[in-house]
Amino acid sequence: MLKTLLVTAVMFSTLNAEYSKPVKVPSITYPLEYDKNFRVMQRNCQWCHSFGYITNQGKQSQEFWRASVVKMRDVYKAPITKADEEAIVEYLFKHYGNGKVK
Ligand code: HEC
């Protein structure tokens, strides 16, 4: 009985803690360079996180971008095909690369 009362009290106490005023959430967009591989980027990289994760890395080597794409596939289980992997690495290195392979 006491348990039920406690659970009920906790449930209702959180209702009182709700914020009643409207909250304005800022909308931030992170545009990527546009080229023939842009759609491949949209299809593979935008459904888990924003493009900000990409642009915030700064200019990086080809090896860095390859490792990022492989990490997204192997660790986070993004279903990236081999053909798309090639297009993505080419795209990232072309627009966000530092000119170095390694
Ligand atoms: C299945 C979901 C998923 C997809 C699809 C995905 N990512 Fe990620 N990505 C993540 C997660 C989870 C993190 C780590 C978030 C954190 O640590 O806050 C991340 C982080 C990153 C980072 C930040 C650096 C790092 O290694 O943590 C980069 C760069 C990145 N992703 C690039 C990409 C690119 C490029 C693609 C498209 C090929 C992609 N992501 C697609 C889930 C995904």
How would you describe the overall organization of this protein?
- The protein is mainly α.
- The protein has a domain at 30-96: Cytochrome Bc1 Complex, Chain D, domain 2 (Orthogonal Bundle), CATH 1.10.760.10.
- Helices cover 54% and strands 0% of the residues.
- It has 5 helices and no strands.
- The chain starts with a helix and ends in a 6-residue tail after the last helix.
- It binds heme C.
- The site of heme C has 17 residues, from α2, α3 and α4.
Name its key features:
102 residues; mainly alpha; Cytochrome Bc1 Complex, Chain D, domain 2; 0% strand; binds heme C
Summarize the structure.
This protein has 102 residues and is mainly alpha-helical. The protein is built from 5 helices and no strands. The chain has a domain at 30-96: Cytochrome Bc1 Complex, Chain D, domain 2, CATH 1.10.760.
- Total of DSSP H or I helical runs spanning 4+ residues: 5
Inertia-based shape: elongated
Q: How much beta, percentage-wise? A: under 5%
Please give the share of residues in helix. 40-55%
User: How many extended strands?
Assistant: 0
Low confidence ranges? none
Q: Name the quaternary structure.
A: single chain
Task: Return the CATH topology of one domain.
Answer: Cytochrome Bc1 Complex, Chain D, domain 2
Instruction: Name the ligand types.
Output: heme C
Structural category is mainly alpha
Main β sheet profile: none
Q: On the 0-100 scale, what is the average pLDDT?
A: 92
Distance between the termini: 66 Å
The value of Rg in angstroms is 22 Å
The level 1 CATH classification of one domain is: Mainly Alpha
In CATH, the architecture of one domain is: Orthogonal Bundle
